[in-house]
Amino acid sequence: MNLLQAHFVLIFPAVITLGYSTIELSPTRPLNIGEEDPDFNGPIKNVTVALGREAILICPTTDLGTYRVGWMKADDQTILTLHNKLVTHNPRIGITHDNNNWGLHIRQVKEADKGCYMCQINTSIMKKQIGCIDVHIPPDIEDEGTSSDVTVQEGENATLTCRAKGHPPPRINWRREDNEHIVVRKTPKETTKVESYSGESLHLVKLDRRQM
Protein backbone atom coordinates (compact mmCIF):
# COMPACT_ATOMS: atom_id res chain seq x y z
CA MET A 1 0.00 0.00 0.00
CA ASN A 2 1.47 3.34 -0.97
CA LEU A 3 1.37 6.48 1.15
CA LEU A 4 -1.63 8.01 -0.61
CA GLN A 5 -3.67 4.85 -0.15
CA ALA A 6 -2.73 4.75 3.53
CA HIS A 7 -4.08 8.28 3.97
CA PHE A 8 -7.29 7.27 2.23
CA VAL A 9 -7.86 4.33 4.54
CA LEU A 10 -7.66 6.73 7.47
CA ILE A 11 -10.28 8.93 5.86
CA PHE A 12 -12.70 6.13 5.06
CA PRO A 13 -12.63 3.47 7.79
CA ALA A 14 -15.45 0.94 7.88
CA VAL A 15 -16.96 2.28 11.12
CA ILE A 16 -16.54 5.65 12.81
CA THR A 17 -18.13 6.67 16.10
CA LEU A 18 -19.14 10.32 16.45
CA GLY A 19 -20.73 11.37 19.73
CA TYR A 20 -23.70 9.07 20.32
CA SER A 21 -24.05 7.74 16.76
CA THR A 22 -22.12 5.26 14.65
CA ILE A 23 -21.52 5.89 10.94
CA GLU A 24 -20.88 2.98 8.60
CA LEU A 25 -18.89 3.86 5.51
CA SER A 26 -17.59 1.83 2.60
CA PRO A 27 -13.80 1.42 2.67
CA THR A 28 -11.77 1.88 -0.47
CA ARG A 29 -12.87 -0.75 -2.95
CA PRO A 30 -12.39 -1.82 -6.59
CA LEU A 31 -14.93 -1.11 -9.32
CA ASN A 32 -17.59 -3.80 -9.74
CA ILE A 33 -18.31 -5.27 -13.19
CA GLY A 34 -20.76 -3.06 -15.08
CA GLU A 35 -20.43 -0.24 -12.57
CA GLU A 36 -19.64 3.25 -13.83
CA ASP A 37 -16.27 4.65 -12.82
CA PRO A 38 -16.83 7.60 -10.44
CA ASP A 39 -14.89 10.73 -11.26
CA PHE A 40 -14.80 14.48 -10.87
CA ASN A 41 -17.01 16.51 -13.17
CA GLY A 42 -14.71 19.53 -13.26
CA PRO A 43 -12.14 21.27 -11.08
CA ILE A 44 -12.76 22.88 -7.71
CA LYS A 45 -12.78 26.64 -8.22
CA ASN A 46 -10.52 28.58 -5.86
CA VAL A 47 -12.29 31.28 -3.86
CA THR A 48 -11.26 34.56 -2.26
CA VAL A 49 -13.33 35.92 0.62
CA ALA A 50 -13.09 38.79 3.06
CA LEU A 51 -12.31 38.11 6.70
CA GLY A 52 -15.49 37.12 8.55
CA ARG A 53 -17.49 36.09 5.47
CA GLU A 54 -18.42 32.58 4.28
CA ALA A 55 -16.20 30.55 1.96
CA ILE A 56 -17.67 27.73 -0.16
CA LEU A 57 -15.66 25.19 -2.14
CA ILE A 58 -17.66 23.01 -4.57
CA CYS A 59 -16.37 19.57 -5.57
CA PRO A 60 -18.35 18.33 -8.63
CA THR A 61 -18.54 14.54 -9.09
CA THR A 62 -20.16 12.17 -11.56
CA ASP A 63 -21.27 8.51 -11.49
CA LEU A 64 -20.63 8.40 -7.76
CA GLY A 65 -23.00 5.48 -7.11
CA THR A 66 -22.24 3.97 -3.71
CA TYR A 67 -18.79 5.53 -3.49
CA ARG A 68 -18.09 8.14 -0.82
CA VAL A 69 -16.73 11.68 -0.85
CA GLY A 70 -14.60 13.27 1.86
CA TRP A 71 -13.04 16.67 2.55
CA MET A 72 -9.79 17.29 4.41
CA LYS A 73 -7.34 20.15 5.00
CA ALA A 74 -4.55 19.52 2.53
CA ASP A 75 -1.57 20.81 4.51
CA ASP A 76 -2.07 18.97 7.82
CA GLN A 77 -4.37 16.12 6.64
CA THR A 78 -7.11 17.14 9.11
CA ILE A 79 -10.29 15.20 8.27
CA LEU A 80 -13.30 17.50 8.00
CA THR A 81 -16.15 15.47 6.48
CA LEU A 82 -16.99 11.89 5.50
CA HIS A 83 -19.66 11.93 2.81
CA ASN A 84 -22.62 13.78 4.38
CA LYS A 85 -21.32 13.56 7.96
CA LEU A 86 -19.16 16.11 9.77
CA VAL A 87 -16.04 14.78 11.49
CA THR A 88 -14.51 18.06 12.61
CA HIS A 89 -15.71 19.66 15.83
CA ASN A 90 -15.31 23.11 14.28
CA PRO A 91 -18.85 24.60 14.43
CA ARG A 92 -18.06 26.98 11.56
CA ILE A 93 -17.69 24.13 9.04
CA GLY A 94 -20.62 22.58 7.18
CA ILE A 95 -21.26 20.24 4.24
CA THR A 96 -23.90 20.35 1.50
CA HIS A 97 -24.51 18.21 -1.58
CA ASP A 98 -26.86 18.56 -4.53
CA ASN A 99 -26.77 16.64 -7.81
CA ASN A 100 -23.32 15.24 -7.06
CA ASN A 101 -21.89 18.66 -6.15
CA TRP A 102 -20.28 18.44 -2.71
CA GLY A 103 -19.84 21.79 -0.98
CA LEU A 104 -17.51 22.54 1.90
CA HIS A 105 -18.74 25.62 3.81
CA ILE A 106 -16.60 27.63 6.22
CA ARG A 107 -18.53 30.39 7.98
CA GLN A 108 -17.02 33.46 9.65
CA VAL A 109 -13.73 32.85 7.89
CA LYS A 110 -10.55 33.45 9.87
CA GLU A 111 -7.00 34.02 8.66
CA ALA A 112 -6.13 30.47 9.79
CA ASP A 113 -8.67 29.08 7.28
CA LYS A 114 -6.53 30.27 4.38
CA GLY A 115 -5.04 27.38 2.42
CA CYS A 116 -5.97 24.39 0.27
CA TYR A 117 -8.58 21.70 0.85
CA MET A 118 -8.72 18.22 -0.68
CA CYS A 119 -11.83 16.46 -2.00
CA GLN A 120 -11.48 12.66 -2.29
CA ILE A 121 -13.45 9.73 -3.73
CA ASN A 122 -12.83 6.34 -2.09
CA THR A 123 -11.98 4.35 -5.21
CA SER A 124 -9.32 1.63 -4.85
CA ILE A 125 -6.83 4.06 -6.38
CA MET A 126 -7.76 7.23 -4.58
CA LYS A 127 -9.11 10.08 -6.69
CA LYS A 128 -8.53 13.55 -5.33
CA GLN A 129 -8.48 17.19 -6.30
CA ILE A 130 -7.68 20.39 -4.46
CA GLY A 131 -9.30 23.80 -4.11
CA CYS A 132 -7.86 26.76 -2.23
CA ILE A 133 -9.23 29.60 -0.11
CA ASP A 134 -7.59 33.00 0.11
CA VAL A 135 -8.66 35.37 2.89
CA HIS A 136 -8.55 39.13 2.41
CA ILE A 137 -7.64 40.97 5.61
CA PRO A 138 -8.41 44.71 5.64
CA PRO A 139 -5.39 47.03 6.03
CA ASP A 140 -4.56 48.41 9.45
CA ILE A 141 -1.82 50.83 10.50
CA GLU A 142 0.61 49.43 13.05
CA ASP A 143 1.40 51.84 15.86
CA GLU A 144 4.79 50.24 16.46
CA GLY A 145 7.21 51.52 13.85
CA THR A 146 4.92 54.29 12.58
CA SER A 147 6.14 57.87 13.01
CA SER A 148 4.36 60.40 15.16
CA ASP A 149 4.93 64.16 14.82
CA VAL A 150 8.54 65.05 13.96
CA THR A 151 10.23 68.37 14.74
CA VAL A 152 13.45 69.35 12.92
CA GLN A 153 15.46 72.47 12.22
CA GLU A 154 15.46 73.99 8.75
CA GLY A 155 18.16 72.34 6.64
CA GLU A 156 17.99 69.05 8.52
CA ASN A 157 16.75 65.72 7.18
CA ALA A 158 13.57 63.95 8.29
CA THR A 159 12.10 60.52 7.66
CA LEU A 160 8.43 59.70 8.17
CA THR A 161 7.50 56.02 8.37
CA CYS A 162 4.11 54.34 8.13
CA ARG A 163 3.81 50.60 8.70
CA ALA A 164 0.63 48.70 7.89
CA LYS A 165 -0.54 45.09 7.85
CA GLY A 166 -3.18 43.25 5.85
CA HIS A 167 -3.61 40.74 3.05
CA PRO A 168 -2.86 41.41 0.26
CA PRO A 169 -0.10 43.69 1.62
CA PRO A 170 -1.46 47.25 1.64
CA ARG A 171 0.01 50.02 -0.52
CA ILE A 172 1.01 53.12 1.43
CA ASN A 173 0.59 56.59 -0.07
CA TRP A 174 1.61 59.89 1.54
CA ARG A 175 -0.37 63.13 1.09
CA ARG A 176 -0.31 66.47 2.85
CA GLU A 177 -3.27 67.22 5.10
CA ASP A 178 -3.67 70.66 3.48
CA ASN A 179 -3.76 69.02 0.00
CA GLU A 180 -0.67 70.99 -1.04
CA HIS A 181 2.06 69.31 -3.04
CA ILE A 182 4.84 67.39 -1.33
CA VAL A 183 8.22 68.92 -2.14
CA VAL A 184 10.76 66.15 -2.69
CA ARG A 185 14.43 66.90 -3.26
CA LYS A 186 15.77 65.04 -6.32
CA THR A 187 19.33 66.37 -6.03
CA PRO A 188 21.07 68.65 -3.51
CA LYS A 189 20.04 71.63 -5.66
CA GLU A 190 16.88 70.38 -7.38
CA THR A 191 13.41 69.76 -5.95
CA THR A 192 10.18 68.50 -7.47
CA LYS A 193 6.54 68.68 -6.40
CA VAL A 194 4.30 65.62 -6.23
CA GLU A 195 0.68 65.20 -5.16
CA SER A 196 1.44 61.93 -3.39
CA TYR A 197 4.35 59.65 -2.61
CA SER A 198 4.20 55.85 -2.51
CA GLY A 199 6.23 53.81 -0.06
CA GLU A 200 6.55 52.89 3.59
CA SER A 201 9.03 55.70 4.32
CA LEU A 202 9.03 59.30 3.11
CA HIS A 203 12.55 60.77 3.15
CA LEU A 204 12.80 64.55 3.25
CA VAL A 205 16.33 65.89 2.71
CA LYS A 206 17.57 69.33 3.80
CA LEU A 207 14.13 70.58 4.70
CA ASP A 208 13.23 74.17 3.98
CA ARG A 209 10.09 76.20 4.70
CA ARG A 210 8.41 75.11 1.45
CA GLN A 211 8.31 71.55 2.76
CA MET A 212 6.79 72.36 6.15
TrEMBL record:
GO terms for cellular component: neuron projection; plasma membrane. The keyword Nucleus does not apply. Residues 1-21 form the signal peptide. Keywords: Cell membrane, Disulfide bond, Glycoprotein, Immunoglobulin domain, Membrane, Repeat, Signal. Residues 38-131, 139-212 form the Ig-like domain. This is Ig-like domain-containing protein. InterPro entries: Ig-like_dom, Ig-like_dom_sf, Ig-like_fold, Ig_I-set, Ig_sub, Ig_sub2, Neural/epithelial_adhesion. SUPFAM superfamilies: Immunoglobulin. It comes from Cuerna arida. PANTHER family: CTX-RELATED TYPE I TRANSMEMBRANE PROTEIN (PTHR12231), LACHESIN-LIKE PROTEIN (PTHR12231:SF105). It is found in: Cell membrane. It holds the Pfam family Ig_3.
